[in-house]
Amino acid sequence: MPALVASDLDRTLIYSAAALALTMPDVRAPRLLCVEVHESRPLSYMTETAAQLLTDLGDTAVFVPTTTRTRKQFLRINLPGPAPTYAICANGGHILVDGVSDPDWHAQVTARLAERCAPLAEVQEHLLRAADPVWVRKHRVADDLFAYLVVERELLDEDWVKELAVWAENRGWTVSLQGRKIYAVPKPLTKSAAMREIARRTGADLTLAAGDSLLDADLLLAADQGWRPGHGELADTGWTAPGIRALPERGVLAGERILRELLAAAGPGRFA
């Protein structure tokens, strides 16, 4: 059976211009491939080497893009390599099969959230009331499943984020700060649950995962092996666990290293 590789996208495999972390001299910078255009502007990149590695990975394993992005945000990404049969969007709220949301899975997820968590409307109202307009730029609801704020990070009061996390915890929600976004997500809305469902459908005998944020921790723990880059929420807090490899690379070169590791672990030699 093929291995299943579930990888986060933003700041794990693909990077905005601000997240590239090109610290080397200009003449040594890697060649970049644009993999996302939004409103006629280039938005996300990976190295050309990473693009070839991802193509090879797609030929070797069941590659499952796994993201907190909404379906609409995910579908504007143009990843190199074979088109994935499966994708996980909205932090596990949607399993896409050939680009279309599986209605049975989505119904299961929404029923679970209604049973176990405070309603989205309560969380959204709290964010609107409690967040300071000095540093909030946008309020957003994602696929009617969770909410997030786009903020000016340099103005953000990070104690407020900690207070929000305590408030959310008591209502069955979790909080994650990723770059310029503060996410409030129901606890049962997980990438790991969606990964397990795809592993069941495909019969995969090995699950591999990669990610950089708090919302990826459950995915990494659920996989047989996991990788995280040297940047992001998990690195900033020193998070690790058995079976998790913490890589030193930061920025777009971390994406390249992660793909090398995933390809090696998923390749034919794993049975040796």
Automatic annotation (TrEMBL):
Keywords: Hydrolase. It comes from the Bacteria. InterPro entries: HAD-like_sf, HAD_sf, TPP-like. Gene3D superfamilies: HAD superfamily/HAD-like. GO terms for molecular function: hydrolase activity. This is Hydrolase.
